Every structure is written in structure tokens, then in C-alpha cells.
């Protein structure tokens, strides 16, 4: 009788608790990345299929278990293809200090890691704000990306290399509607316009406000995928927006923009 009861008792160590916690954190982060996108339905479907496979395997239903197992084996490749943007965003998220943002030890480690990568030249905030104010008055559409720790060389290489000094006239001339460089973003690094006409990742969230255009989606997309900041001038309304970590402040004044930039680049 005792020998029959022994298998019913399971050993549970602190390593098992850590294992469960890590899996829970991983699943939670993956859910946050696909939440609000069309990929969430696929994510839920895969999770339910895997849960069904575990139940069928536990019930020793060999034929059904083998069939589901084959689907799951092929599903790994399908996941990589279908979730390519989300997986890339997740790896970028892990590779930045934001992954350890709530941990003081992590903050100290990453602050030491990036110590030599901070801007050596102060940002010309006055010229930048003035250019945005002028473009807002003339309803000239613009998207400006400001790098912080990462220089975004991958995205800069999608555009035309400039390495130009920041000035009101330079920024306005780039985004002038007849300019060959106006269609895309400019990336500013160390107070220099690194490149223009850059292609940025676009936010895929279906809940994003419909009245905001592709520039706003691109601004949210790049700030979610990196530690960069973004400024958008709407071509339809002339409103100025500021974006950080995927959070968009819409319809701010030039004074408010100046204050936000001074806070970030002091």
C-alpha cells in the first residue's frame, strides 16, 4: 500500500520554483510584445495547442499525442517566421538596459556599461525646437529621431548619409515637401544629422488611434524597439508630438517640447 502511494508525492525544490518563475516572466514579456497586435491570436492558439498536447500526453493517448507532437515540431519554425518582428523586438528589449530597469543593480551595471557612449556634444535644442515650431506653423510633416545610447546605425543605413550640422534651415529644407529627402526620418546623433530619408519600424498595434498617421506609428515603433526619442510634426494638423519608450505625447507646444528635450539631454 505504501509503495503505491510513493509515486503520488513529488519533490519540489527551490530550483523548481526558479524554473517556474523564469518561464512565467518569459511568457509575460512575450505576451506584452504581442498584446494589441494581430499576432496575439496566433500566440493564444499556439499556447492552447501546446496545453492540449501536454494533457493528451499525460493521458497516454499515443496516436493523438504523436500527431500533435509533429505539429509542434514544425510549429517551432512557423513561430520564427510568423513572430519575426516580435522576436526581434524581444531580443532588442533584452539587449537594452530597460530589461533591468526596475533593478538597481542592473541600473548600475548598465550605467557603467554605457558610460563612454553618452553624447559628447550638447544637443542644439534651440534650433531643433525652432525648426519644429516653423514646420508646425506651415503644416510640414516631419519625423526626427534622437539617439541616446544606441546610434541606430542599422536604421541610419536605410537612408542617405549626411553628417550635417543641426540648423533651422537644414531641418526645414530636408522636410520641405519638394525635397528628395523629405519622405522618411532624420536621425540625429551627437548633435549631428547622421542620415535622412531613413526607414523606421512601424507600430502594428490595432488599438493605435486612427487619426494618427504613419509618422506617429513609426515614431512609436522606433522608440519601442530602441532607447531613442522621436519628435513628430503632423502634416494634417501641424501638431507636435514627442515620443519616448513608445509613449506618445500629442499636441504639445514648442515650450513643452523644449522642456522635455532639456530634461532628456541635460
Write up what this structure looks like.
The protein has helices at residues 2-5, 14-34, 39-58, 62-82, 84-94, 104-113, 125-137, 153-156, 168-175, 214-225, 254-265; strands spanning 142-146, 160-165, 185-189, 192-198, 229-233, 240-244, 247-252. 51% of the residues lie in helices and 15% in strands. The protein starts with a helix and ends with a helix. It is an alpha+beta fold and 266 residues long. The protein is elongated. The model is unreliable at 97-119 (pLDDT under 50). A hairpin with a 2-residue loop joins strand 6 and strand 7 (247-252). It has a 7-stranded mixed sheet, with helices on both faces. The chain is built from 11 helices and 7 strands.
Describe the strand arrangement of the main beta sheet, using strand numbers: 2-4-3-1-5-6-7
Helix content: 40-55%
Count of DSSP E strands? Answer: 7
Radius of gyration: 24 Å
Global geometry = elongated
Distance between the termini: 74 Å
Run of helices and strands: HHHHHHHEHEHEEHEEEH
Strand content: 5-15%
Spans of at least 5 consecutive residues with low confidence: 97-119
Helices, by number, come to: 11
Average residue-wise pLDDT: 79
Amino acid at each position: 500500500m505504501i509503495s503505491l502511494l510513493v509515486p503520488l508525492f513529488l519533490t519540489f525544490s527551490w530550483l523548481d520554483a526558479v524554473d517556474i518563475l523564469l518561464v512565467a516572466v518569459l511568457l509575460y514579456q512575450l505576451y506584452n510584445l504581442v498584446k494589441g497586435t494581430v499576432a496575439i491570436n496566433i500566440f493564444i492558439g499556439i499556447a492552447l495547442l501546446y496545453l492540449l498536447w501536454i494533457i493528451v500526453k499525460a493521458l497516454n493517448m499515443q496516436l493523438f499525442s504523436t500527431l500533435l507532437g509533429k505539429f509542434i515540431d514544425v510549429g517551432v519554425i512557423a513561430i520564427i517566421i510568423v513572430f519575426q518582428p516580435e522576436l526581434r523586438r524581444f531580443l532588442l528589449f533584452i539587449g537594452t538596459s530597460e530589461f533591468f530597469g526596475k533593478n538597481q543593480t542592473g541600473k548600475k551595471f548598465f550605467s557603467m556599461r554605457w558610460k563612454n557612449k553618452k553624447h559628447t556634444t550638447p544637443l542644439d535644442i534651440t534650433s531643433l525646437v525652432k525648426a519644429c515650431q516653423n514646420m508646425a506653423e506651415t503644416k510640414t510633416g516631419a519625423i526626427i529621431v534622437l539617439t541616446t545610447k544606441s546610434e541606430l546605425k542599422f536604421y541610419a543605413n536605410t537612408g542617405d548619409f549626411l553628417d550635417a550640422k543641426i540648423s533651422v534651415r537644414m531641418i526645414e529644407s530636408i522636410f520641405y515637401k519638394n525635397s528628395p529627402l523629405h519622405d522618411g526620418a532624420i536621425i540625429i546623433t551627437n548633435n549631428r544629422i547622421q542620415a535622412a530619408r531613413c526607414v523606421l519600424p512601424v507600430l502594428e498595434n490595432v488599438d493605435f488611434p486612427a487619426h494618427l498617421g504613419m509618422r506617429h506609428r513609426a515614431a512609436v515603433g522606433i522608440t519601442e524597439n530602441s532607447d531613442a526619442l522621436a519628435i513628430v510634426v503632423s502634416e494634417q494638423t501641424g501638431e507636435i508630438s514627442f515620443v519616448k519608450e513608445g509613449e506618445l505625447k500629442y499636441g504639445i507646444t514648442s515650450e513643452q517640447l523644449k522642456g522635455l528635450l532639456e530634461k532628456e539631454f541635460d
